[in-house]
Design brief:
Layout lengths: L3 H12 L10 H17 L3 H5 L7 E2 L14 E5 L5 E3 L2 E3 L4 H10 L6 E5 L5 H13 L5 E3 L2 E2 L4
Parallel strand pairs: 1-7, 2-5, 5-6
Antiparallel strand pairs: 2-3, 3-4
Amino acid sequence: MWSPSRAAAQRAAKRRSTYYSSINVWPFVGVMVALLFVFLARTTPIHQHLWAAVDLPRSTSALPQRSALREDTMRVSITRNGTVFFRNLRIVQEDLPGLIHDALQEGSEKKVYLAVDARSKYGLTASVVEQIRIAGIREVCFLTEKSEGN
């Protein structure tokens, strides 16, 4: 039995290609996922998690302090508005000797790394250093950023 729609369908089937083209996007997706992981790992600066938000002073003679990045390091930060942090905890500066003593009991080295904002008051920094001395620590390392000298 002949019908016009059936004949049209047969003609269209003869003209249709037997090859199907498609784009394989899985290699592209794999590269994009790898780049995502690389950039996520690279975008978080180290000191963002270790220190409070301080603008360190610049120095031409700064030396790298690799042990300042260890987890058990005693880090004290003083922000611009006078807030004092021990490691990641906001503290009152009078509590600092007790916290240092506890950290020494846990096995920290007898050295305090002090990150002071460049615009903080000198008197606050001096009183925090005095609290560190009361705790029995004689080695205090002031952290700075290295700047290119003339």
